[in-house]
Amino acid sequence: MVEVDDGMSDLARAWAQVRANLRRSAGARVFDQWLAPIALAAGDDALDVRLTAPSAFMTNWVKSHYADRLVHEFRTVLPGVRSVAIDTAVRAAAPAVLSAPVAALTAPPAAAPVAAAVAAERPSLDTRLTFERFVADASNMVALNAAQALAAPGAVRFSPLFLHGGTGQGKTHLLNAIAHRFLEDHPQARVMLMSAERFMFEFVAAMRARDTFAFKAKLRSCDLLLIDDLQFIAGKDVTQDEFFHTVNEIMSAGKRLVIAADRAPQMLDGIEPRIIGRLGSGLVVDIRPSSPELRHAVLARRVAEMPDTRVPRDVLDLLAERITSSIRELEGALTRVTAYAMLTGKTIDLEFATQTLGDMLRGHQRRVTIDQIQKLVCEHFELKPLDLLSARRARAVARPRQIAMYLAKRLTTRSLPEIGRKFGGRDHSTVIHAVRRIEALRDSDREVDQAVHMLLGQLEA
């Protein structure tokens, strides 16, 4: 029993005991968030108890989850209690009566505004992923413009915004950027950014704790909700049902919703048709695979952010031309090269980059062979295959041979001795000389640079 002041009425003393019992049975977290703010209304009627909650939102929650429990707890302490009523303190509506049975209170709670009882949650955002650092070209410009429009102040122009594209093409970057910009203009807004996997995990945890209403309230009270990687809830029927209702609540309230996935809504296998239809009713924007120009622009921007680091152009070309599937992986490759150079004290050049990124480059290797390189170089310079293997040193033969060696080093995983053997049994030092010579000529000889660029494009096609 809880000790209370002797001057308290029997009803007040009973209410103190009920609160203590509820705290033990419901747990401290649920009690403090939802039940502690409930107060005993003015009056002293031990037969018909009246309670008040500080908001309509909390009133609905308590009615839905603790109607029978309150009646039971009061009757345990005061057997003569006929009913327990709860109302919102800020309005004078007639109280709804809680008594056993309580059929009138078992209906789902009506939609309510954001409640003070729901603690504000700030999203965990990546500070690097802003609109200012997003590099755009024709492949992602529409997505960037749509993201900026949705984050802008004023009336919501479209919701939801559905972004789709391959892994590492910038979807997560845009989600973070939207959240950053929206919070800059609305510092007190409720914003949540989560993956669909986290959505599923938290919902399942809430079901196990029998506390799904708190989970729903947290999401549906958001001013901006962003969900990444929607494809991960494919086939999860219960999670999809809750996701559908969350989407409906956000859209019906005229709030902002952004969804990202690796495919367009109609291409998401295992996602319920009603969800696909709801998402398709907003603005659907694709982010196409990055172009060579975009990859070069991304690398140039990132290098500009490292003023104390020099990365030669041929190294940037190597990264942009070999790592094509993901902008995220491209940036990671640049970080790896610059970090290794700093840690080892070595100068960044083509050979250093190739050695540092060996595994990564092999994973992106297009299986270009030295034979293919030699054949294409001969066609371009109108030579015979034997010319590249011969001992002839005339520039008309020697320069194409050096270009072929340079391309072999850049586009294949063959070692320097292996490359030398494929060019008439030359040793590795000859290959090194050829590679360095072409690297230098690309900066000073326009014809050599154009020839290499054209051959690279043909080989990688």
Verbal overview:
By secondary structure, the chain is α/β, with parallel strands linked by helices. The protein folds into four domains: 10-105, GMP Synthetase, Chain A, domain 3 (2-Layer Sandwich); 131-287, P-loop containing nucleotide triphosphate hydrolases (Rossmann fold), CATH 3.40.50; 292-363, Helicase, Ruva Protein, domain 3; 370-460, DnaA protein, C-terminal DNA-binding domain (Chromosomal Replication Initiator Protein Dnaa, Chain: A, Orthogonal Bundle), CATH 1.10.1750.10. The chain is 53% helix and 9% strand. The chain has helices at residues 10-26, 28-35, 56-77, 141-151, 171-185, 196-208, 212-220, 237-252, 273-280, 292-304, 313-322, 327-344, 350-356, 358-363, 370-381, 385-389, 395-411, 416-422, 428-444, 446-460, and strands spanning 39-40, 48-53, 83-88, 96-98, 161-165, 191-195, 224-228, 256-261, 283-287. The protein has a five-stranded parallel β-sheet, with helices on both faces. α15 (370-381) packs across α20. Mean pLDDT is 83; it is low at 1-7 and 91-120.
Give a short synopsis of this structure:
With 461 residues, this protein is α/β, with parallel strands linked by helices. The protein has four domains: 10-105, DnaA, N-terminal domain (GMP Synthetase, Chain A, domain 3, 2-Layer Sandwich); 131-287, P-loop containing nucleotide triphosphate hydrolases (Rossmann fold, 3-Layer(aba) Sandwich); 292-363, Orthogonal Bundle (Helicase, Ruva Protein, domain 3), CATH 1.10.8; 370-460, Chromosomal Replication Initiator Protein Dnaa, Chain: A (Orthogonal Bundle).
